[in-house]
Design the sequence.
């Protein structure tokens, strides 16, 4: 993933948005004029040639002659606070007063660069480029002022939407300068000077949550809130088993229900599933309730297909078998098998985590308005450009004939990167001849998810006669995400293991990691922190088990395995390459000093050393993911009725430079609750190919009464390159809780959720 | 035809008496602030007030609302000035925001009945409102702020 | 399941206290019958001794009283039960009036009848029986004594007891629980008649454990 914004984004080209009422158009620059006019001529999309008066150096920033500043947010807002962060970053670099700024959500368009809001990458992948975008605008406004004042540009700076001249009281507002600035040539982004980070003053501010006022008064717009005249609402009855096909259906009862207008069949997808519509029968109605009733009233006969034998209990046994013999080597240092053969003692454990569902509070929804030559979409998508391509392909249109408006997302966690629910809406609107909103029910969302992989991990360590750890072997089996894109992917790939297995520093002389067979029987997708969830769970649990086996403190054990402060080389890891979340290893090394630091800070904050005297059961876990280091201590106790309670959690995060401390803190708090759900309650199981959990009474999530009394968030101050924020908090939480349960009860839980064992 | 008051305004909606209030509000009355999260009264995203009592609109049939007053999040205040709305913004409670209308409406009902709830009372009354983003600790703080309870007290 | 076991136990001799209304010598019974079916009053006419017949009628009625559809709303604790008897989810609390807590009353979710699409059960006046009328985990004998004690039966006379079990709309829900929940055995009418017959034959309590 390059993440770099396209040069076209800086140069500007025809781009338009009407969401929120402000129409913003950037005139084509000379270099692109011919292409853009040709494209526009082919498109049926409405064009506006005259931009509002002012200065628009690129598709991200418009400074109006009336003083109103528009900043485009090109990434999807799903609660991580990107709309509260990127515009604030741009405004700070520009020197604009946020009181003058209106934030517009960018449509899906490559003009805006990489819009795939995924992988905790919105800041880390474009930190410099975003600032350059704003710096270009600042440079031009300063140049315009300097011209007027006949002074050197270096003697001017921007502040609160004004350009100020050092040394005297001269000032010009952006409004006053906008027209002049617009006449100047646009400098290359690489050529403009960025402000010093401290001069942006972002670190000390508590940035406002931009959408909070609209959220608390009910005006915030999510996908299902968008209406267009003449639209119908569709609820789809989908194949109960992955790969199932419709044999026949009878819509008589459905069509007889008041409000039901059409019933349409959606063709079954063929593997690999990617983002194809899921197949089934859609009931289109004037209101959602009628559509839901209609879907229930269909008489349906399915050929369930070969996955009808998928049973989670049987599959768990298969995974266990899979990890009990050698797999494909992904990491090798020394001779782990040899060392295991000579070991004085072998410590081994097998960890199993079930499928997990994203379970965003907002089930997927999309409104599509398809006409002969155009498709307009309003969708809660994390990846609007892919949504655009997928819709175009589904409809047999060209990409430029599709417009994607991105609404707020009621949660994403990776579910809404997949464009299947967009393709469904596009297809149905085309078939129905009217605009169609596809509404996924909660049952649809849980039963037909792109599930997080089920997994089994076998960890084995060799101890010599002095108790030193001489070998570490990690076998991992899980149906990979690749299986959704390629039917031949029946075991994890080496690249998949960079999430917590092959990037793990271990001061052990013999290390081996292997991937084992695990074919997929459902659609597998990525979910908040992805494979790190189970790799961090097993590694952190195993470190705790080793500590117990060797009679050492878990903190000491962890630091011993981590080893001295260093940037770990590939050869030390025993691998040839590391995807490293798309970043260069030189920029974002695996840095044991940073890991040690968060572990030490969090254990100090949690009073680790005095826990036993104080009678507190604590569990420790730490994990690096998405270039960020996180350590967690959880404290548990027993309620009066014997159930485990998570009393208090400490989470220390080193994410390099943090742009929005306030939202970073909220992400860590949220990650704790998310991880707590994984540890305590959540699990998707399949029986006869059908997902057993249909709604929240079966797929359980943490509720307010279970939330820790206090979550202590510690963000390490750093001016290093930014790492991810949205995901890294998750992986260490579940193992910290389970390790705390061991400290409290002596019971070692190796299979989640805790609910299975009657502990909660 | 079901006649009722919604956010202080008399409305007459041509709906099946069994239609859940949620869909009448969203699809017929044009008020989309109340959200669909589960349809089974398990998540609380659809919470509104019916004659001042918090109800889950996804399971409340329109016939139960006939002649009565419904308040949705849009009607909680004219201008976002309800103490809960203010506290929610000041504490930075929302993340994705989808559950928050339901959280606020439930909390508003609690505070209308129990002006200074204990921590336990807050957790009990909001037990039916799920938040997948995990904003619970801030929800608690915002309810206490709106109630004028000092942070640190139980 | 515990209910069936208690029903079975109630029909055998337990050596605790001898209640005054019980007969001496071997108790005359019909045997437990099927837990899923409710026998009519007439079936018990074959028991000649009135106290034994009375106790047997009550025992039959406990197939309903101690069924999950009824026990779930007569819990001991702060929370109703659900399905086979696990704690209600979402977690809800009794509140001071047995109707829930502010913001989360029983009627915040439960309507006056079951619903077409949603599984949440409904009946008029959905609420919990007060703690004094809890009978979760009680033996048939303990339940019997409780039902006859005005301090623990809502101050009801025998007529009012009969009225409640025979005609109360919330009680009626036990036989039409909806959405694949197991109904109480028999019908409300049969149940009402059994209870009436029990009361009218001296309201004898079956032998059994009293804790």
Sequence:
């Amino acid at each position: 993933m390059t993440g770099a914004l396209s040069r076209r984004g800086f140069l500007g080209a025809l781009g338009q948005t009407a969401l929120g009422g402000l129409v913003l158009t950037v005139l084509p620059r000379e270099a692109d004029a011919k292409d853009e006019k040709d494209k526009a001529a082919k498109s049926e999309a409405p064009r506006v040639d005259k931009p509002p008066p002012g200065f628009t150096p690129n598709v991200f920033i418009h400074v109006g002659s009336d003083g109103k500043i528009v900043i485009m947010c090109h990434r999807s807002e799903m609660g991580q606070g990107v709309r509260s962060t990127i515009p604030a970053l741009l405004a700070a670099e520009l020197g604009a007063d946020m009181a003058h700024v209106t934030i517009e959500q960018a449509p899906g368009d490559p003009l805006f660069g990489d819009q795939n809001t995924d992988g905790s990458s919105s800041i880390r992948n474009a930190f410099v480029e975003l600032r350059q975008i704003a710096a270009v605008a600042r440079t031009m406004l300063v140049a315009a002022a300097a011209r007027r004042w006949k002074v050197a540009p270096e003697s001017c700076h921007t502040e609160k939407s004004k350009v100020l001249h050092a040394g005297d009281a001269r000032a010009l507002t952006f409004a006053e300068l906008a027209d002049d600035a617009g006449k100047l040539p646009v400098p290359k982004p690489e050529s403009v000077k960025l402000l010093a980070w401290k001069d942006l003053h972002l670190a000390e501010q508590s940035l406002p949550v931009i959408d909070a006022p609209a959220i608390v008064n009910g005006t915030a717009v999510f996908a299902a809130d968008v209406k267009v005249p003449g639209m119908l609402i569709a609820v789809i009855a989908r194949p109960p088993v992955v790969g199932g096909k419709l044999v026949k259906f009878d819509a008589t009862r459905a069509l007889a229900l008041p409000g039901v207008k059409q019933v349409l069949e959606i063709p079954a997808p063929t593997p690999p599933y990617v983002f194809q519509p899921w197949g089934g029968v859609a009931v289109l109605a004037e209101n959602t309730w009628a559509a839901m009733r209609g879907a229930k009233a269909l008489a349906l006969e399915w050929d369930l297909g070969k996955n009808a034998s998928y049973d989670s209990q049987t599959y768990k046994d298969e995974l266990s078998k899979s990890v009990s013999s050698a797999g494909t080597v992904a990491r090798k240092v020394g001779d782990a098998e040899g060392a295991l053969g000579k070991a004085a003692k072998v410590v081994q454990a097998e960890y199993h985590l079930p499928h997990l569902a994203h379970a965003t509070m907002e089930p997927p929804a999309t409104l599509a308005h398809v006409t002969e030559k155009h498709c307009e979409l309003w969708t809660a998508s994390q990846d609007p450009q892919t949504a655009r391509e997928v819709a175009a392909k589904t409809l047999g249109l060209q990409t430029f004939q599709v417009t994607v408006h991105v609404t707020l997302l009621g949660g994403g966690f990776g579910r809404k990167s997949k464009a299947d629910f967009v393709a469904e809406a596009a297809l149905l609107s085309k078939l129905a001849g009217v605009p169609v909103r596809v509404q996924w029910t909660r049952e649809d969302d849980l039963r037909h998810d792109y599930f997080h992989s089920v997994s089994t991990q076998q960890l084995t360590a060799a101890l010599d006669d002095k108790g030193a750890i001489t070998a570490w072997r990690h076998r991992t089996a899980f149906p990979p995400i690749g299986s959704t894109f390629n039917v031949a992917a029946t075991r994890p790939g080496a690249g998949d293991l960079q999430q917590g297995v092959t990037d793990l520093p271990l001061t052990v002389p013999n290390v081996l990691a292997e991937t084992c067979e695990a074919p997929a029987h459902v659609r597998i997708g990525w979910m908040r922190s992805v494979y790190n969830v189970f790799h961090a769970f097993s590694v952190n649990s195993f470190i705790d088990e080793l500590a117990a086996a060797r009679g050492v403190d878990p903190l000491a054990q962890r630091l011993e395995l981590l080893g001295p402060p260093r940037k770990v080389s590939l050869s030390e890891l025993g691998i040839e390459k590391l995807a490293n979340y798309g970043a260069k290893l030189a920029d974002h090394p695996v840095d044991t000093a940073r890991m040690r630091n968060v572990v030490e800070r969090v254990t100090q904050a949690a009073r680790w050393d005095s826990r036993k005297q104080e009678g507190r059961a604590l569990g420790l876990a730490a994990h690096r993911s998405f270039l960020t280091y996180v350590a967690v201590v959880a404290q548990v106790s027993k309620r009066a009725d014997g159930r485990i309670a998570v009393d208090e959690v400490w989470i220390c995060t080193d994410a390099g430079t943090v742009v929005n401390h306030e939202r970073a803190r909220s992400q860590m708090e949220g990650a704790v609750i998310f991880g707590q759900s994984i540890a305590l309650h959540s699990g998707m199981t399949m029986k006869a190919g059908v997902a057993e959990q249909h709604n929240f009474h079966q797929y359980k999530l943490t509720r307010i009464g279970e939330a820790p009394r206090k979550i202590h968030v510690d963000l390490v101050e750093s001016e290093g390159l930014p790492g991810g924020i949205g995901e890294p908090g998750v992986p260490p939480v579940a193992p910290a809780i389970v390790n705390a349960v061991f400290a409290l009860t002596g019971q070692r839980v190796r299979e989640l959720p805790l609910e299975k064992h009657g502990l909660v | 035809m079901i006649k009722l008051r919604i956010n202080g305004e008399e409305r007459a909606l041509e709906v099946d008496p069994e239609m859940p209030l949620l869909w009448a509000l969203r699809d017929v009355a044009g008020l989309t602030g109340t959200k669909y999260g589960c349809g089974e009264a398990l998540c609380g995203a659809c919470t509104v007030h019916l004659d001042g009592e918090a109800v889950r609109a996804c399971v409340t049939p329109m016939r139960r609302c006939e002649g009565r007053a419904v308040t949705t999040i849009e009607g909680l205040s004219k201008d976002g000035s309800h103490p809960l709305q203010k506290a929610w913004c000041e504490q930075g409670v929302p993340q994705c925001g989808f559950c928050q209308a339901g959280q606020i409406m439930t909390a508003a009902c609690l505070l209308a009945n129990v002006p200074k709830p204990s921590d336990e009372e807050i957790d009990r009354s909001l037990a039916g409102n799920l938040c997948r983003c995990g904003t619970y600790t801030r929800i608690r703080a915002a309810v206490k702020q709106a109630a004028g309870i000092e942070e640190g007290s139980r | 399941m515990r209910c069936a076991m208690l029903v079975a136990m109630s029909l055998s001799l337990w050596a605790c206290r001898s209640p005054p209304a019980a007969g001496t010598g071997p108790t005359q019974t019909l045997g437990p019958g099927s837990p899923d079916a409710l026998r009519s009053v007439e079936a018990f006419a074959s028991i000649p001794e009135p106290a034994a017949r009375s106790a047997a009628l009550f025992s039959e009625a406990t197939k309903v009283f101690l069924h999950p559809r009824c026990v779930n709303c007569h819990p001991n604790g702060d929370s109703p039960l659900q399905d086979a008897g696990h704690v209600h989810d979402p977690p809800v609390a009794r509140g001071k009036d047995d109707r829930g807590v502010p913001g989360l009353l029983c009627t915040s979710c439960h309507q006056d009848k079951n619903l077409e699409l949603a599984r949440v059960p409904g009946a008029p006046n959905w609420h919990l029986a007060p703690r004094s009328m809890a009978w979760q985990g009680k033996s048939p004998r303990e339940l019997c004594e409780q039902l006859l004690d005005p301090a623990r039966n809502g101050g009801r006379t025998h007529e009012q007891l009969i009225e409640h079990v025979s005609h109360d709309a919330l009680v009626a829900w036990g036989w039409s629980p909806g959405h694949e929940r197991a109904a109480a055995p028999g019908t409300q009418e049969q149940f009402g008649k059994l209870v009436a017959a029990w009361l009218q034959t001296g309201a004898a309590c079956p032998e059994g454990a009293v804790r």
Notes: Residues 100-113 of chain B form the longest helix (14 residues). The beta strands of chain B are 2-6, 9-13, 47-50, 53-56, 69-71.
